[in-house]
Amino acid sequence: MKEWDELLAPYKQAVDELKVKFKGIREQYRHSPRHTPIEFVTGRVKPVSSILQKAKRKAIPIDQVEGNITDIAGIRIMCQFVGDIDTVVELIKIRNDFRIVDEIDYIKHKKESGYRSYHMVLEYPVQTIDGEHPVLVELQIRTLAMNFWATIEHSLQYKYSGQIPSHIEARLHRAAEAAFRLDEEMSQIRGEVREAQKIISTTTDPINKP
Ligand code: 0O2
């Protein structure tokens, strides 16, 4: 079996390249009068300890993690509004620099924990000195409110080693619903928010100043 550094190198390259590409989409919107559906982009390669834990939990032999663990490379795209998620999904679907191999809508079908996000698994061709090396990348698209909830819940999962006490779990469920209501409320006043943001960007951006 390859050394971890060697195995993870193309995943790191995929994350670096995709971050540049998705940030590029955001920049293109910034230079157009249209609202940008992408607020910010993050990415990471899963730490070896987490890969080993997941492989153990899913009974995947270590030499078969590639192809069986789909989130070794992960990209997260955060959006202001729920409707922006559909726009990002459409933007992803018209691209031809990767292939979509799986799609899971955890927004329409939230997870039992209360987790919401739109997941896609991409097969991304990394160009290496030995030729093309396709790797799987998990793309998570979510609103800022969904991201806030998922980040907090993730740290609690970590703190309690996956066994969150039931009274905290119940509060997390209520918090997930509150985050969803916040997204719904914001969507209702989306037009107002966008107009305000347009005014701010034209008065604070020196390029657009008269
Ligand atoms: P990390 O630290 O985010 O990298 P699973 O069996 O559910 O663990 P699976 O079947 O590979 O994972 O896919 P799934 O359900 O799409 O989950 C993959 C990732 O989605 C997780 O990665 C999380 O990032 C996110 N996610 C899924 N469910 C939840 C949830 O209930 N709460 C939070 N906070 N995030 C979730 P990892 O492996 O947890 O690691």
Sum up the structure in keywords:
210 residues; alpha+beta; Beta Polymerase, domain 2; 5-stranded mixed sheet; 6 helices; 5 strands; binds ligand 0O2
Tally of DSSP helical segments = 6
Rg: 19 Å
CATH superfamily: Beta Polymerase, domain 2
Inertia-based shape: flat
The CATH architecture name reads 2-Layer Sandwich
Number of domains: 1
What value does the average pLDDT take?
93
Q: Tell me the structural class.
A: alpha+beta
Helical residue percent band? 40-55%
Heterogens: ligand 0O2
Count of DSSP strands: 5
CATH class term = Alpha Beta
First-residue to last-residue Cα separation? 61 Å
Percentage of residues in strands: 15-25%
- How would you spell out the order of helices and strands? HEHEHEEEHHH
Topology readout:
Elements: H1 4-30, E1 40-45, H2 48-57, E2 73-79, H3 82-93, E3 99-105, E4 118-128, E5 131-143, H4 144-159, H5 166-188, H6 190-204
Parallel strand pairs: 2-5
Antiparallel strand pairs: 1-2, 3-4, 4-5
Helix pairs in contact: 4-5
Bound molecules: ligand 0O2.
Ligand 0O2 binds at residues 46, 50, 54, 70-71, 74, 111, 113, 115, 119, 150, 153-154.
